[in-house]
């Protein structure tokens, strides 16, 4: 029973750590896309500096920040290198004048 418990605990720890620290985890993709967007000159011109980025508001309403833009991204693993590559990174400006800033477009 103890060995089974240790095995299950070890498996859960592996899955959690892999999800949090993997280069293909959602958090890592989110961070890389944000870093590319915040260095783009047009994004800096629209939003100014420093630029902060937050995840989506939950149903609990925990995030009360005002939204000025939305970033959309898609990435996929390159079969040759094994690394994630962005297919696109787009920033939608929600304030007037509304527009879309293209950071990366490899579609």
UniProtKB/TrEMBL annotation:
Which key words are in the record? Membrane, Mitochondrion, Mitochondrion inner membrane, Protein transport, Transit peptide, Translocation, Transmembrane, Transmembrane helix, Transport
Query: Which family does the record claim for this protein?
Result: Belongs to the TIM21 family.
> Tell me, which GO biological process terms does this entry list?
protein import into mitochondrial matrix
Its biological function? Essential component of the TIM23 complex, a complex that mediates the translocation of transit peptide-containing proteins across the mitochondrial inner membrane.
Pfam families linked to this entry: TIM21
Major location (coarse): mitochondrion
User: Topologically, how does it sit relative to the membrane?
Assistant: Single-pass membrane protein
Per the record, which residues fall in region Disordered?
58-79
Q: Gene that codes for this?
A: ABITRAM
Q: Where does it live in the cell? A: Mitochondrion inner membrane; Mitochondrion membrane
This protein's source sits in the domain of life called Eukaryota
Could you tell me what this protein is called? Mitochondrial import inner membrane translocase subunit Tim21
Self-association and partners: Component of the TIM23 complex.
Source organism (scientific name) = Oncorhynchus tshawytscha (Chinook salmon)
GO cellular component terms given for this protein: TIM23 mitochondrial import inner membrane translocase complex
């Amino acid at each position: 029973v103890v060995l089974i418990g240790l095995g299950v605990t070890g498996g859960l720890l592996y899955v959690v750590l892999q999800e949090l620290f993997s280069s293909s985890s959602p958090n890592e993709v989110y961070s890389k896309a944000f870093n590319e967007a915040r260095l783009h000159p047009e994004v800096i011109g629209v939003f100014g500096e420093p630029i902060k980025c937050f995840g989506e508001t939950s149903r609990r309403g925990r995030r009360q920040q005002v939204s000025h833009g939305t970033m959309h991204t898609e990435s996929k693993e390159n079969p040759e290198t094994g690394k994630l590559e962005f297919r696109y990174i787009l920033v939608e400006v929600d304030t007037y004048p509304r527009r879309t800033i293209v950071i990366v477009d490899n579609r």
